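Lab channel / #folding
Pinned by the channel admin:
"Please post every new chain as: sequence first, then the structure tokens as a reply. Keep commentary short and put observations after the output so the thread stays searchable."

First post following the new format, from NK:
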Amino acid sequence: MRTVPIIVKNGNKRLHVNCLLDEGSDTSYVNEDVIEALGLHGAKTEINVKVANDETIRFMSSTFEIGIESMDGQVDTAITAQSSKKICGEMKPVNWIKIKQNWHHLKQIHFPKLAPGRKVDILLGADHQELMYSMKEVVGEHGQPSARLCPRGWTAIGKINGTESTGSHHTGFHHTFRSQQKEHQNKGHHTKINLDEMLKQFWDLESIGIISKETSRG
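Reply from TO:
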């Protein structure tokens, strides 16, 4: 997976963090400890995230707008992201500066220096594709990693054959749905709608035109 260090900021507060570029996710996420360090606060709602093997995880999350800047200062913009306790688990970014000498075609690539702490704090999804598209690519022989230049600097993708990592890591977040419990007034009474029922109603609407008439009658 491609990782790249960036600067996140809110006003005068700036943090150097590592970011995972995940085009398989339609939503961007940032760890809650980063949000707290930036001095941001927001109300939480329950969201449902569909992950690998068609499984769904649920957790409480807030939506934030945070500033991001590339290490070379060429990109300075803002993104919208969901908060998460530990979006990438124990995943560690690869230190390409340390291991690039193992491949001739990577030796001259100016990879940016990783953030301290060696963990991933932000997952940038396809909702911010403009910040991760490939501007230039340097490839080697078959089976070797490739370097890619994106708007936020050089990163790389490919197998490293145990050069630095002792295990393989893969993160894939696909679709995020936000559920919020509401109260409906009916003849002077307030009725709470169950979150599971709300999600079922959502899928019923999404399936219109997909389910056959025979099935819908049954």
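NK: Residues 195-206 form the longest helix (12 residues).
TO: also worth noting, The chain has four helices and 14 strands.
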